[in-house]
Each structure stands twice: as C-alpha cells, then as structure tokens.
Amino acid sequence: xxxxxxxxxxxxQEVDSESPxxxxxxxxxxxxxxxxxxxxMVFRISIKKMSDESAINKxxxxxxxxxxxxxRFLSLADSDAAAFDQVMESFRMPKxxxxxxxxxGKTIQMAFHNAVSVPMETLxxxxxxxxxxCLGIEKGNPNCLSDVGTALQLINTCAYSALYxxxxxxxxIKDEKFVDDCMSSSQEIIARIKEKxxxxxxxxxxxx
Length: 208
Fold this sequence. Notes:
With about 210 residues, the protein is mostly helical. Helix content is about 85%, strand content about 0%. The protein is elongated, with a radius of gyration of 19 Å.
C-alpha cells in the first residue's frame, strides 16, 4: 500500500489504528511533503507577478526543487513504514538455537540501521527544503506569507519528528561509530533548521 494513493481521510484512519504503521516517521514525511507542496505553490504564484527574467528563472528552479522534495517525502513516508515493519518482522524470527539467535540478532541490527537511515534521509530532505522556504519568505509574493509561513512550521515539525525517530532507533544499535555519526550529523542539521526557522518566523511576525 502506497500512502500517496490513499485519500486524506483513509490515511488518517490508517494512522488512527492499532497498527504501529504508519507512525510518527511516516507522518513526519507527509508533513514534509505538504511543506514542499505549499512552497512550490508560493513560487508559482510569485512568478506571475515577476518581470525580472533572472528572478523568474530562480523561482522556476526552486519550484522544481520543491516538487522533487515533495515526491521524495512521499516515498520516505512509505519507506519509514516498511522499515518499521522489517524491525517487527525481525523480532518474530525463531531463537531456539544458537544459530537462530545469531541470525536473529544480526537481522534485528540490520533492520534498526534501516529504521534510522530513513528518518535521517527525511531530516536531510528537510534541511534541503528550508533554503527554498527562506527564499519564498524573503522574495516571494507577500500575499503568500501565511502560506509559506505554514510551510516553515510544517518543515520544522517534520525535522524534529524525524530526529525523534532517529534517536529512538539508535538506542538499539550496537555499532558505536554508526551511532556517533548519526548523532553528530542529526544534531548539526537540526541546529541549522532551528536557527533558520527562528529567523524566518521573526521576519514573518514583524510583517503582520
């Protein structure tokens, strides 16, 4: 089941169920996709009011980037659910013999590596989108400021939610270098996003 093929109501019903998937990681990615869609919308509306060819080309390029990220986030929503399903499946493996225990342990570790890698990609994608959102806030049509501001808050939610999923899954991983690398990288990314969100939110609030 691909979430992009579901109605909004059906997706919400899937979240509101006894199944652990789709969970926070998928919802985070959906928030990212909505943020990218709003950003692309703002660029399109802004272009209509532009006459400078250079500015138009820049906004067209940013529209394309936002569209790419919108699609990537949708794919990550599915990937996150699949990654957690793999984790659950690995815990159901037999553990009656030492060989089975060893295979099960390795499979669990591989599954958790993947369960970290997916939200890390969501976090990196949020980092990419924030630059486009900033452009929309600073140079876009001022009548769209509430829309791009909503995109800003959505990508902030996406980023922190992805970070939560990275951190919780890292707790089970035994590879210390992998854990350290992910902790360091995720902290750097979230710090950049936090700074930009605060800066852009201040600019928006000063306008109203």
